[in-house]
Design a protein that fits this description.
four-stranded antiparallel beta sheet; Luciferase, domain 3; GMP Synthetase, Chain A, domain 3; 12 helices; nine-stranded mixed beta sheet; Rossmann fold
């Protein structure tokens, strides 16, 4: 199954640009070297060499195992042993070859990537991603975002995750749009890139919104996309004022790629990730479509994996749906809003089911709050009580924040306790690590 058209656009990483014909020639040289390998491990630094290595392996039909550049020895040893991947030697960007995959070429069900989970519940697990899944994901997003060869995509996201690699590299190659990777997702680099389409996580957009000069420079763009976590309403408002744009949001995970996305042509609904893309179905279990009641989010369709590498197909229901582990609400129009992770973000307090994400969004609407994370702590009366960890730009009484949430949401969703902290623990993608917050 062909993942890329015959003619792709230029790729720029940092200050180095590869013309389409240079990329294809160098990738073909890699393909000739790796053909027949069981899998190839690529240290996925933000570089043209990484792009060439990944494309070359995919041309040869060899699964790619992207490695985080800062991965430790224990993690590397586990991933290499678990995947059976062979590390790729240095890539020569000047090498050229004319490579044609044997007919009929890799099948649609052949593994293209083996991505590894974050390992929050044990050793990282390998997720085989098929060529069909990648194609379905990218084609669905191209339709949803009107993404085509006239676009110039800009981002600075890591190249070993779904967001930065699948969407951010394979996406423009499949669509035929030019890619500018800024190496780091810094406001000034985004501002100077002059793209039409920008990818970022909420932390990136928050920093851009705090830099009016950089944000104003994005006014020429046609679309901003936010993912990996919920976009705070305050950040969306600031971006709208400075750029004239509110980012669209989307939802996915390593096991499913992107399954739900907002349409670029639809009115913006901050905090809502949209509806399932073509070829995907989603359901929120045991919850009415009232836009309020949370339930377990399950998905199925063309982008969803078939099971972890070398393990049983855990996580699937008896009728074939993948249980994402996320909690969501849905409305009558089929729009989905992610409330949080079932393991850490669904709080059962006084007989109510409360989504931590909803409370966090309410807190972030207070002008004094810059960061917020909400968890459920054991409580002898309520079962769990809502506890909020807050980073405040200005001094603010805890009771003021509690009352603010009670007025914004239902009273039973208010925090029972506010704990002020200097910063929230985050991982390399900017996601809050709630397991490091005390209950």
């Amino acid at each position: 199954m062909r993942l890329f058209p015959q003619h792709t656009a230029d790729v720029t990483v940092g200050d180095r640009t590869m013309r389409a014909e240079e990329l294809h020639g160098a990738a073909s040289a890699v393909a000739a070297r790796v053909q027949g390998a069981p899998a190839i491990a690529v240290r996925a630094e933000a570089s043209p060499e990484t792009v060439v290595a990944v494309v070359g392996c995919l041309l040869a039909g060899v699964p790619v195992v992207p490695l985080a550049p800062d991965a430790g020895e224990k993690e590397l040893a586990h991933v290499l042993r678990d995947s059976g991947a062979v590390p790729l030697p240095d890539v020569d960007l000047a090498a050229r070859a004319s490579f044609s995959a044997p007919e009929p070429g890799p099948s649609a069900t052949a593994t293209a990537l083996i991505l590894y989970t974050s390992g929050t519940t044990g050793l990282p697990k390998g997720v085989p991603v098929t060529r069909r899944a990648i194609a379905a994901c990218l084609d669905g997003l191209a339709e949803r975002w009107a993404w085509d060869a006239d676009d110039v995509l800009v981002h600075g996201l890591p190249l070993y995750h779904v967001h930065g690699l699948v969407l951010g590299v394979l996406g423009p190659l499949r669509v035929g749009s030019r890619l500018i990777h800024t190496v780091r997702p810094q406001p000034l680099r985004y501002a100077s890139a002059r793209g039409t389409l920008y990818f970022g996580v909420p932390t990136v957009w928050s920093r851009i919104a705090a830099d009016p000069a950089a944000a104003t420079a994005l006014r020429h763009a046609r679309l901003l996309v936010s993912g990996s976590a919920g976009l705070p309403a305050g950040v969306a408002r600031d971006l709208a004022a400075l750029t004239g744009l509110v980012p669209v949001e989307r939802y996915g995970m390593t096991e499913t790629l992107i399954t739900i996305a907002a349409d670029a042509r639809a009115p913006r609904r901050v905090g809502w990730v949209g509806t399932p893309i073509t070829g995907v179905q989603a359901r929120v279990v045991d919850a009415p479509a009232d836009g309020e009641t949370p339930g377990d989010l399950q998905v199925r369709g063309d982008t969803v994996f078939g099971g972890y590498l070398g393990r049983d197909a855990s996580g699937f229901t008896g009728d074939g749906w993948f249980d994402t582990g996320d909690v969501a609400v849905t409305d009558a129009d089929g729009w989905v809003k992610i409330v949080g992770r079932k393991s850490t973000d669904l709080i059962k307090s006084g007989g109510y089911r409360i989504g931590a994400g909803e409370v966090e969004s309410a807190l972030l609407d207070h002008p004094a709050v810059t960061e917020a994370a909400v968890i459920g702590a054991p409580d002898p009366d309520l079962g769990e009580r809502v506890v909020a960890y807050v980073v405040a730009a200005d001094p603010v009484p805890a009771q003021e924040l509690i009352d603010f949430v009670a007025r914004t949401l239902s009273v039973h969703k208010r925090p029972r306790e506010i704990r002020f902290v200097g910063a929230l623990p985050r991982n390399h993608m900017g996601k809050v690590q709630k397991t490091r917050l005390a209950g």
